[in-house]
Design brief:
558 residues, Gyrase A, domain 2, Isoleucyl-tRNA Synthetase, Domain 1, five-stranded parallel sheet, four-stranded antiparallel sheet, RNA-binding
Length: 558
RNA sequence: GCGCCUGUAGCUCAGCUGGACAGAGCAACGGCCUUCUAAGCCGUGGGUCGCGGGUUCGAAUCCUGCCGGGCGCGCCA
């Protein structure tokens, strides 16, 4: 069946047109009719404010128009009743017939129920994390990783063809600094620290010793006597690979897997930077000034022009980023999404301008800014680790609270708001921990289904369930919530907002727990038991679907 | 100084393309386990939506000015 909303939209549109033609107004194009879940109970399963929005168009008071439209709707077999309220809302109460069909659709649809073809099979690339391979990922990267991965899941669920990409910044001065830092530690471990002083602004973390130790194990002391240039080149290469490997491992442990690991070096290896610069020149957006090549970003929304190629011939980060984004679009993506830390927000207008200068609609690039994570331990700030002065690593957090809790917490808030992440709360196994609350609901469903099977109480085929058997407030509320899922998934996709799903699944779990506590399933009269078994099963399926989108396990026992 | 994000209940946050008496979880208080997992449920109290103007029939939501928090303003990445 169609989504509840789509069907309802058709019904309402018909009524609106009818009302309009009675006034002698013909509406070619109707404004889109929006449905939303009313905030309060008693206001129906869905409501629309279309009467208020169209009252001017039809020259009628909102409340009167609402009544008129409502009167035309009450005959629908899908609606139990229609009420008008407040300044002109129309509230819809879904009929048992409809409830029954929703249940049937969920059970028939398997894990795919709620998905859509909004993306139309278009190709979208989500680039995220993309941390320099100069050190371990910290919690901030963790949030970006969770959000990027979940957004990719959501887009795939809503009809996009998705690729996940990690951009490896392995070509800049930072890598030289990394090599020099490791080399210095290597000499230090050999007791010859004075021969290779630690670079100013070098990487001071303990992990540098680990990398240096790995070089000693593999290469012995041979670099103690090698020429510095040869040594530096080796250390840079070795360190970058070693750290990238550990980043890959941390991400895999976190449940994040990329389709493409794109090295900045390949950008230069394939001469993509110079050719991108040529494109800009041809299009008239690059000019020479004082020996450097500049980008005319002031032609767009940026506040000043930016250097692309320095007078010494070295390209800036911005130049390689333009080349990189050109390459992305050249690879045929219809849409590109970058997930960045919020500290890069000043860079957004520049990047948008860059994309535009390449002849691309700036809206083909979405840049999501992820705000900082505030790590807490029982409400007390825990952001710094004691020794290195580094931020707490992602691996530490995942090791302590597990990937499930970490992902759930990272996705819990809007991207652009700061996130308080309490480690103790994330580990707690009680109802104040939202992760367990949701997972427990799923485990409970599984438990009931197991017990039913053990007692030989088979659930009937979904088609045989009459919707009106669900008479209680808890059952109706749960069904109504289940029916919301396609709309919530679509909204999360449009807004690229994982937190919408976190909130939804938390609410759904709550509705299930309420239902479970208020009603027995097993041992009831056969018809009631069968219907409730199916309701429980459908609830479990939708919870599992959402958790899958979040990349969180849906345990069968807890 | 300029720019971006943000300020909603004791705490953490939803709601922000204007609409119904401002919602949820936690914390507090009071109840519910002979029966499908109490990692659960039910109930009670709690808010001048930072402050002042403005637009509107209607503002937490839009505009503007202050105040507070975060982050940026490199030929760094």
């Amino acid at each position: 069946m169609e989504g509840v909303e789509a069907t309802l939209r058709q019904i309402v549109e018909g009524a609106v047109r009818e009302a309009a033609s009675e006034k002698g107004i013909s509406l070619d194009e109707l404004p889109e009719i929006n449905f939303e879940k009313p905030k309060r109970e008693g206001q129906g399963d869905l409501s629309t404010n279309c009467a208020m929005q169209m009252s001017k168009l039809l020259g009628e008071k909102p409340a009167d128009l609402a009544k008129k439209i409502a009167a035309k709707l009450s005959a629908s077999p899908y609606l139990d009743r229609v009420e008008t309220a407040g300044p002109g809302f129309i509230n819809f109460f879904l009929s048992p017939k409809w409830m029954g069909e929703v249940l049937e659709a969920i059970l028939a649809g398997g894990g795919g129920w709620g998905s859509s073809n909004r993306g139309g099979g278009k190709r979208v690339q989500v680039e995220f994390v993309s941390a320099n391979p100069t050190g371990p990922l910290h919690v901030g990267h963790g949030r970006g990783a969770a959000v990027g991965d979940i957004i990719a899941n959501i887009l795939a669920f809503t009809g996009w063809k998705v690729e996940r990409e990690y951009y490896i910044n392995d070509a800049g001065l930072q890598m030289d600094l990394l090599g020099a830092s490791v080399r210095a530690r290597y000499f230090e471990l050999a007791g010859k620290g004075d021969q290779a002083p630690f670079p100013e602004d070098g990487y001071k973390g303990d992990y540098i010793y680990d990398v240096a130790e790995a070089v000693r194990e593999q290469e012995g002391d041979r670099f103690l006597s090698a020429p510095p240039e040869e040594g530096l080149a080796f250390f840079k290469d070795f360190s970058g690979k070693a750290i990238l490997d550990s980043i890959k491992k941390d991400l895999a442990d976190f449940g994040v897997n990329f389709d493409v690991w794109f090295s900045e070096k390949t950008l230069y290896g394939q001469n993509l930077v110079p050719s991108a610069m040529e494109t800009l020149k041809e299009r008239g957006y690059a000019f020479e000034h004082e020996g450097a090549l500049w980008f005319k970003s002031t032609d767009f929304t940026d506040e000043k022009d930016r250097v692309l190629i320095r007078a010494n011939g070295a390209p800036t980060y911005f130049a390689s980023d333009i080349a990189y984004h050109k390459n992305k679009f050249d690879r045929g993506f219809d849409r590109v999404i970058d997930v960045w830390g919020a500290d890069h927000h000043g860079y957004v207008p520049r990047m948008k301008a860059g994309v535009q200068s390449l002849g691309r609609d700036p809206d083909d690039l979405d840049i999501l800014l992820i705000q900082f994570v505030n790590l807490l331990r029982d409400g007390v700030q825990a952001a710094m680790s004691t020794r290195s002065g580094e931020f707490v690593t992602l691996a530490d957090v995942v090791g302590e609270v597990g990937a499930d809790a970490a992902r759930f917490f990272f996705a819990m808030r809007r991207n652009d708001s700061h996130l308080d992440f309490d480690l103790e709360l994330a580990k707690r196994t009680s109802n104040d921990n939202p992760v367990y609350y949701v997972q427990y609901a799923h485990a409970r469903v599984c438990s009931v289904l197991r017990e039913a099977e053990a007692r030989g109480a088979a659930a009937p085929p979904a088609q045989t369930v009459r919707g009106d058997i669900f008479a209680s407030a808890e059952e109706k509320k749960l069904l109504s919530r289940l029916a919301d899922f396609p709309r919530e998934a679509d909204k999360a996709s449009r807004e690229l907002a994982p937190h919408i799903l976190v909130k939804y699944v938390s609410d759904l779990a709550g509705d299930f727990h309420s239902f479970y506590n208020a009603h027995r399933i097993l041992g009831e009269a056969e018809e009631v038991m069968g219907a409730r078994l199916l309701l429980a099963k459908a609830s479990g399926m939708v919870i599992a679907s959402v958790l899958a989108l979040l990349g969180v396990k849906a345990p069968e026992r807890m």
